[in-house]
Design a protein that fits this description.
The chain is of the alpha/beta class. Helix content is about 35%, strand content about 15%.
């Protein structure tokens, strides 16, 4: 009886791929199998000095860093980030985080990591948006790995301008002094995974890592983003 009801539901309320717009079948979620197969993955070795890791070579606390796929403004796959970030579809980020973690699980990337730490939004931005997209990505990773998500430990206490149209120097200046650690004991001596949606210059994640390592000299940090700019 349930499969029949499900089929009826699919007919009455069809779901469509967020990338190509084609109708999804019952086993697909947010993105069709064809588009998922063509996802422009970075194929970066998450344990090596890949282009994402090169952003953080000056921060001794950083252990590893990677991103799952390439982000290009206006590309069909950029819709996945835009929808999850600005269009009240955070469940897309959760789903992509889950899929990415499944692929990374066999690389050793999560070995030794104690908790997941989403890059925080300011209160003003989170109130306006209604959610933090990085928290939803972290939930997907947690679903796959079983690692706990830490929230409220790293906070963004200043509401800075959006980074979208800034160059690197301006981005770095824009994020200086905007983060703080509220409960250092919770992270002392731990290996945390910083999580964000997109890496362009890496300025925001660098500022997070710089703040954490300054307050907690014994912390170890790895970095994961769903996507990164192709021209890194």
């Amino acid at each position: 009886m349930m499969p029949i009801l499900s089929d009826i539901g699919m007919l009455l309320f069809p779901r469509f791929c967020k990338v190509c717009g084609n109708k999804l079948n019952q086993s697909e979620e947010h993105i069709c199998t064809s588009c998922l197969r063509r996802l422009p993955k970075t194929n970066y070795d998450p344990m090596a000095l890949n282009p994402v890791m090169q952003h953080f070579v000056g921060i001794p606390a950083i252990q590893h860093a990677t991103a799952w796929f390439f982000y290009s403004h206006g590309n069909a796959y950029s819709k996945l980030i835009t929808l999850s970030k600005y269009n009240d579809k955070p469940e897309i980020g959760r789903y992509l985080g889950l899929l990415a973690a499944k692929e990374l699980a066999g690389t050793g990337f999560f070995e030794g990591i104690d908790c997941l730490l989403p890059v925080p939004l300011s209160r003003q931005r989170k109130w306006k948006r209604g959610y933090n997209q990085s928290e939803w990505i972290a939930r997907g990773i947690s679903k796959t790995t079983g690692l706990p998500v830490s929230q409220g430990v790293l906070i963004r206490h200043k509401h800075n301008k959006t980074q979208t149209h800034f160059h690197f120097d301006d981005r770095w200046e824009n994020v200086q002094g905007i983060f703080s650690v509220t409960n250092p004991k919770h992270l002392a001596g731990r290996h945390i995974l910083l999580i964000d949606d997109v890496i362009t210059t890496g300025a925001t994640l660098m500022a997070c890592a710089d703040t954490l390592s300054h307050v907690l000299p014994d912390i170890r940090i790895s970095v994961f983003a769903l996507a990164c700019a192709r021209d890194e």
